[in-house]
């Protein structure tokens, strides 16, 4: 009996596996179509200068407007896109969209774009970025590229050369989700980052846990010594923001200021060329 129960178990497990595989294949096919059918959208979340409270720019965050499943957040498809290589056309779409959108904003606003480690394996990534800048007319100084530590684990010297090349044309580099990965401090000296983005997990409970304050304060000190700026991501309350300002953080981003919004819902004060065109 136990043997047959075991076999049943195995059968159920097997069916669950193939159902999962099928769902995955469907999702993969859908994602492939999504790119071709332009179902991907880029939403924008502002980041603020902590000192002045002024908006400094927006981070581009991809969403998938699925025909039947509604708006799907990136956590549900970026990993699949990376496994299937679809992240390459997806990433290029986001980059081009973000550069084109930002080119119509007031010129003091930056745009930050996340790049996947998989995109770094493409030999022509520099040309892709350069073409996105050229075709949109966006000044390279207004583009910030966000990468996570996982990019740096592999191909260190090639990535260094690539990053130096981006810097030489004026593009800024941010180390995203700092504190969640291997967080080797040697990355900070080995690679030419302009900015460190402290992961939101350190911001949670900031106002209750003295340890979080100590960590953020040492990241700020370290960044200053290396001539880098610091962004706190995931700022949700004004208490957190006040604390972060006192700790010397340069930029803040989070729901306190705004959730990521579709392009037509972000308010651009000042005489933006884009908004004039929209109003006409
Ligand atoms: P990320 O680059 O670290 O982006 C920040 C994430 O935190 C975003 O989630 C944002 O919506 C969320 N967030 C912002 N403020 C708050 C807050 O106050 N509280 C909380 N709880 N969350 C906040 P989102 O948009 O779901 O994106 C998740 C991740 O997906 C991003 O993390 C990034 O790693 C990845 N991603 C998004 N767009 C792209 C893209 O175009 N390309 C690549 N390669 N990855 C992307
Ligand atoms: Mg990011
Ligand atoms: Mg982040
Ligand atoms: Mg993240």
TrEMBL record:
Coiled coil feature spans: none
Domain of life of the source: Bacteria
Protein localization: Membrane
Residue ranges of domain EAL in the record: 24-274
Record protein name field: Histidine kinase
Origin organism lineage: Bacteria, Pseudomonadati, Pseudomonadota, Alphaproteobacteria, Hyphomicrobiales
Shown part of the complete sequence: 530 to 809 of 809
